[in-house]
Amino acid sequence: MTLSEEELAEELTEGPLRAPSRARVVAGRFFRSGQGRIGFAVLALMFLLAFAGPLFSPWTYTDKDFTAFMQPPSPSHWFGTLQTGADVYAVTLRGMQKSLVVGLLAALVSTALAAVVGAFAGYFLGWTDRALSWVTDLLLVLPAFLILAIMSPLFGAGQWPLFVIMLALFLWMVTSKIVRGMAISMKEREFVQAARYMGVPPVRIIFRHVIPNLSSLLIVDATLNVSTAILTETSLSYFGFGIQPPDVSFGTLIADGSKTAVYAPWTFWFVAGLLVITVLAVNLMGDALRDAFDPSSKRSR
């Protein structure tokens, strides 16, 4: 990996020449990227708004104002109210919390699953590879939306962690195939062969040498999977197959707001706008991370 003149100058001013860490180089490239800085700042703001914003409102997402039904934004209700008298601001931030948590957890679980399955298949090959590849190919052809729709009765109130697991089970297959191919070449590297000759157990080699050396791919994949998981959750919840009432998410709020969007736009456009901004910020971060990890990318220089 090559360093820019600025990075090399920083290293020399510290004293004796020392090898810069990969994390420092990647972080430097990421924050030199305009879209990386914008995406990070906007996403941080979305998380801050979702989890700290409710503290500044006198209303919670379960409160009802029976004197203000379908009222437009006002000093009392910053985003207006719904047909039930619920405060749109409080309900929207609650939905944002749930969608962000579901998207983040589903992305982490799916990326971890892709890393483990792909690395084991590529390292061991043989019957292990055949069995894991068969499971991967089977899940690729299964209709994920239909299966999640059939299992939606299980995602009742308080059962959203089960929904996260089921959602993650249909997001990891393509990445797993990429990891498998990289693991096949990684097992022939000198440091992996040296560990094998020293008697290090194969499982330990996979978790200490193979997977860590695929971190750039996995980090980018996890970042991009966040937006995929959020949009998938939104789509499923919109049709009633995701997060179930009385809980709320982006999908359930958009489904309710779309019915009144024409004559009460505040019930729809606030949540729709926040969804677009959040997904756009995640995608900007994912593109910037991909460029930062790729030394050949012109945009990372």
TrEMBL record:
Q: Which family does it belong to?
A: Belongs to the binding-protein-dependent transport system permease family. OppBC subfamily.
Its placement in the membrane is given as: Multi-pass membrane protein
Assigned GO CC terms: plasma membrane
TM annotation in the entry: 38-56, 100-125, 132-154, 160-179, 266-286
**Protein's organism:** Nonomuraea zeae
- Main subcellular location: membrane
Q: Which GO terms describe its biological process?
A: peptide transport; protein transport; transmembrane transport
Q: Where is the ABC transmembrane type-1 domain?
A: 100-286
| Chain segments annotated as coiled-coil in the UniProt record | none
**Which Pfam families does the record match to this protein?**
BPD_transp_1, OppC_N
Give yes or no: UniProt keyword Cell membrane.
Answer: yes
Keyword field: Cell inner membrane, Cell membrane, Membrane, Peptide transport, Protein transport, Transmembrane, Transmembrane helix, Transport
Q: Where in the cell is it found?
A: Cell inner membrane; Cell membrane
Q: What's this protein's name?
A: Oligopeptide transport system permease protein OppC
- Name the InterPro entries on file: BP-dependent_transpt_permease, MetI-like, MetI-like_sf, OppC_N
